[in-house]
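Fold this: MFS transporter
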Amino acid sequence: MTLLDVSIVNVALPSIETGLGAGENALQWIVSGYALTFGLLLVPSGRIGDARGRRSVFLAGVIVFLLASAACGLAPNGAVLVAARLLQGCGGALITPQVSGFIQTLFRGQERGKAFGFFGATVGLSTAVGPLLGGAIISLFGSDLGWRMVFFVNLPVGALAIVLALRYLPTPPKKSGAGRSADLDPIGVVLLGTAVLAVLLPFIEQRSWPLWLRLILFPVAAVTLLVWVLHERRYGRTKEPVVSLDLFRIRSYVLGAAVGLAYFAGFTGVFFIYTQYLQSGLGYSALQAGLATTPFAVGGALTSIVGSRKVLALGRGLIAAGLATVIVGLSATWVAVLLVPGQNVGWAAAVPLLIAGLGGGLVISPNQTLSLSQVPVKRAGSAGGVLQTGQRIGSAAGIAATGSVFYSAVASSEGDFATAFRHGLFVIVGFVAVALLLALADSLTSKKTPSSEPDAPTERAPGVAQDPDGAPTERHADGRHPDGYHPAMPDAAHGRHAAGHHAAGGSSTP
């Protein structure tokens, strides 16, 4: 739901412009305002979840997101819609880090990889299916009501999420109230937020602000980031900072963050310029443009789960193979557009985009699985928030760079959208190639990254005991696991038993 709202609104912009009389600046902020607040609050939200309990923060995020979605759908003018989108981004940021935090807390080893696989498939599908779903809704309800329904569709989904969260998400153990405010590191939150804002704004306002103003913000970001590091180092001597600098001593985490940033810079740019090419250049409807991007989403869904389950055994080499496949698929897309630049390009590019999607499924969730494999559970939320903030910065930078090349090519070629799209693809492939080089460097210079040592769990579901490895499990009165697991059973035997149980269609988690 939260990731869908990054892309679903793009196809609704023409209807919003007509229905509300929104100007170009308002339309830009309807898209970028959501991304801005989303990116700003990811790390603080992850830290709050670590300190206060992920269940309550997740629920608060869903409620904020639903209220903001309703306000978006009811907006009487562009200014109200922009404000509601900013609030919607805040809700999305509260939700997202808790997901990776729960996965870190509740799963171990291959089970964790499987969970991240489902998460990765959801990320890929949500991002790619957004234009398709938005186009279908607008086609069904018409231009005037359709754009409002794009936001109202979140309401039943979010309501169901609240019901399921109350039933299934584990509650944190009770803590004393002492030192609770100090745990949140408010100065660190403000400094990091300022640095992220100074990095994101130049990309978001690329077409509105003069170059000199945008360039000034990058040194501001660098200085603020340096002050933040010094503060975190001092604060971390006695208390838990918003982001522990120890995370950046974990090789798999640092390289994973860099790979994710570079890949998202390319990955999200594909949909941005492809839908522009199809709709503005060829006159595709919103629904037709969404359908044309679907092969990428299908490919990613097919490989995400398998990739996450295998990455702990195969390491960064699997991610490198996925990135190479993405480059092959995008290169084939370039050829398809060169040979069939007209109305049939959607069909011509379908198989190449499917290939690129198959590679992408071996990147997003496997990279997250491997990056977080050695991160302590107590820092899972903030660590996941840092990773996802890097992805948001990568997305903003990638769309800015790719869009700049694309629009410049459209202008210089007198409206040749096919040529402009091919130029944009060069930029996208360049970003993916950087990610590939980073993954290859890691794969060739390091041994297989082991999964993290089991950490003491921080959260538990009501009435659910916990095994020695930290995963919650239901027990019979005599202490036996319903599957037959006993705490005294060696880990290896437990792993064999769990694998056999899964093959029979059961589950080792409540």
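Confidence is low (pLDDT under 50) at residues 177-182, 449-510. The CA atoms of residues 406 and 424 lie 5 Å apart.
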